[in-house]
Specification:
8 helices; binds S-adenosylmethionine; 246 residues; 7-stranded mixed β-sheet; 7 strands; Rossmann fold
Amino acid sequence: MTAGPALRLCTRAYRALPRSARHFLREVTTGRPFVTLSPHLTIAVHWAFRRLAERAGGGGPDLFAGAAYYEFGVYRGYSLWYAEQISRTYAPDNFRCLGFDSFAGLPSSESDGAHYRRGDFAAGLDEVVGNLRAHGADFDRLRLFPGFYSRQLFARFAAEFEFPPAAVCVIDVDTYESCLEVLRFMHPRWRPGSIVVFDDYNDMGASDEHGERRALREYLAEHPGLRVTHLRDVGHEAAIFEVSSV
Ligand SMILES: C[S@@+](CC[C@H](N)C(=O)[O-])C[C@H]1O[C@@H](n2cnc3c(N)ncnc32)[C@H](O)[C@@H]1O
């Protein structure tokens, strides 16, 4: 068979595949599979949802009620997709999963530039929406907020959308500057029992002078009334905290 008919046959066979199979082939052949960069994050997210469900089931407060899952650092969308999937088991129908990312990778970082470069982990909004749709995410429960984190960006979002309190918040943004901006935005959204997962807390030698560790330390110093409790570490980099009092 010559190249022309063979190509037409392949195209017909490709088009006959279900949408999810076509998407899978695209992911594999472009070298951009739909996977998380942090496999331990899925364990941490599941652990957080189950902890809240067990508290509510055991007569404690229902922290899912009227609340949301927040994720900062979406990349290709896997961790957000995973949270939306398991929220269907643990949280009510009106629970929301909110993802925030530049969809253009990391900005430059003065503090952590030796470890991370501008543009690292770039995945465009179209790619992420395509991944989420192909894997069955429910866009009635899930919403994406594109842009580089800044006080102005978050103020614009807050003028357009009523952000519920946080049940679970995942911060997977790698650098000090990004993490501090996120914590400041989240401040009014904590309630006692909110769970915060820092994906990179023990990254960069677990130094108090860098990354998410430095951001949390400085953020807590800005808000002496806020107390957080370290619940556990997951894998070699993530740490899970609970907001004890606001
Ligand atoms: C390590 S990746 C997230 C990985 C993802 N959670 C996963 O499990 O695959 C870090 C993400 O944080 C985003 N990010 C970091 N700092 C940001 C900022 N200041 N503004 C917007 N997005 C930022 C990057 O665009 C990137 O997608």
